[in-house]
Amino acid sequence: IDSFKRKGFITGLFSMIVVGAAAGARCVHAKACRTVGAPFTTNKYLRFSIRLYKKIFIMTNSPDGSLAQRREITSESVAAGQPAEPAQVTQEIPSASQQDFLVQYVVIRKDLWGSLRWPLGSVVAQACHASSAAMWMYRTEEATQQYLAPENIEHMRKVVLEVKDEAQLRKLSEQLAQGGIGHKLWVEQPEDFPTCLATRPYAKSQVAPYFKKLQLSKAPIV
Questions:
Q1: Residue 71: in which H helix or E strand, if any?
Q2: Which of 2, 20, 147, 158 gets the highest tally of CB atoms within 10 A of its CB?
Q3: Is the entire prediction scored with pTM above 0.85?
Q4: What's the top EC group for this one (predicted)?
């Protein structure tokens, strides 16, 4: 319950209690209501209403209002003959991380900066080559145009992963080709040396399963 709704609800409830108490007082002194049970019933309702108001006020103004408090109030309402408040159904709004966004995957060989001892700049250059080549090769794709659109250019998403060596990189490239996933395997020339690959932009849900077994590239910068 947001602040505005909470205050409105509490104010309305308090007004109902005050009106009910006044009506009860009139009823006690009215000839038509002078029965043995009328004063007791009115006082019992008033006491219940005040207790209910206090508990709801505490629960709605306290960030740690627990489910147990809600159940206590509901059970007390039923015991007093009052209709229980219907359960409120809230719809969870997916966060940005849960939404299906466009993303480009870049996969680099880990042995470049490991056993082969490539400098950081050379490794970054390979990733840039693969990413740029994939964008150009699939520039007519709607997803690529949307990914590079002026309104989205400041919000591009890339996921950089790593594979162990050339054999694993080539195997991944073959799997992507078999699945119809557009990508560029970058082979450094004139050495004819494959270094990394990059996909064209895709909706994450469409390509993420191909990369679920790979780790994020977390090479230390030294």
A1: helix 67-79
A2: 147
A3: no
A4: hydrolase
